[in-house]
From TrEMBL:
Tree of life domain: Eukaryota
Organism lineage: Eukaryota, Metazoa, Ecdysozoa, Arthropoda, Hexapoda
Keywords from the UniProt entry: Transferase
Catalytic activity annotation: RX + glutathione = an S-substituted glutathione + a halide anion + H(+)
Organism in which the protein naturally occurs: Photinus pyralis (Common eastern firefly)
Name of this protein: glutathione transferase
PANTHER family: GLUTATHIONE S-TRANSFERASE, HEMATOPOIETIC PROSTAGLANDIN D SYNTHASE
Length: 227
């Protein structure tokens, strides 16, 4: 569970005991569009840590008013204790520290960061295809994405999972596993394919992550959205 900097010192009025100290948990508010998108790994990590949060999903038509209130005109933003945290991966790394899903040393953290950045690279390539508005150009991008780019990445990510005992780094559960599994629904939707269809180790990893207490409860109660 999370501890926080805000401490209340309460004078003991009984005359017998020392001063009591109450440590308060921060109140987390996640601001994002009404989708899983790049906020879902944040929701998974908060849920894994049994950290309560306000899942504030704003409608797209309200974004023009909200945008200027964010640090860099983008979402997600995680607000807590006077902090407005931005950049989804930085937020995930912070939460991973809070819920103890980091590596055991700098090398393990390097391994985790590298696979997280690789997943983000793959998402960027998929997003370029998805966001293409010209149907002719989109069609020309489909075959290379589905037959070259995605297989290239997924073969390598699967090999890493196989070597790491069905994990993405350090041979154990880390925030990389949670990040990848939380990202999958959106990546599958955007690419129109099941990224892990031919990846048995990643399928095991997905099952394991989705069965973690906290995450299992979150997935059962979260709003149903495609992406
Ligand atoms: N690198 C940023 C990317 C943030 C981003 O692209 N957010 C999109 C939604 S997924 C957004 O805010 N789009 C609206 C806009 O840019 O006006 C992160 O990971 O947080």
């Amino acid at each position: 569970m999370v501890t926080f900097h805000l401490r209340l010192f309460i004078a003991d009025t009984s005359g017998f005991g020392p001063i009591s100290v109450l440590t308060m948990a921060p109140v987390y508010k996640l601001m994002y569009f009404p989708v899983k998108g790049i906020a879902e790994p944040i929701r998974f990590l908060l849920s894994y840590g049994n950290i309560e949060f306000e899942d504030h999903r704003f409608e797209r038509e309200n974004w023009p008013q909200i945008k200027p209130t964010t640090p860099f005109g983008q979402a997600p933003v995680l607000e807590f204790g006077g902090v407005k945290a931005y950049q989804s991966i930085a937020i995930c790394r912070y939460l991973a520290k809070q819920v103890k899903l980091m590596g055991a040393n700098d090398i393990e953290d390097l391994e985790i960061d590298a696979i997280i950045d690789t997943i983000a690279d793959l998402r960027t390539k998929i997003a370029v295809y998805y966001k293409e508005t010209d149907p002719t150009i989109k069609e020309t991008r489909k075959k290379p994405l589905l037959e070259e780019t995605i297989p290239y990445y997924m073969e390598r990510i699967e090999a890493i999972a196989k070597k790491n005992n069905c994990h993405l780094a350090a041979g154990k559960l880390t925030w990389a596993d949670v990040y990848f599994v939380a990202s999958l629904d959106a990546l599958n939707f955007l690419s129109g394919t099941n990224l892990i269809a031919d990846c048995p180790s990643l399928q095991v990893m997905q099952d394991n992550v989705l069965n973690l207490p906290g995450i299992k409860e979150w997935v059962a109660k979260r709003p149903v959205t495609d992406v």
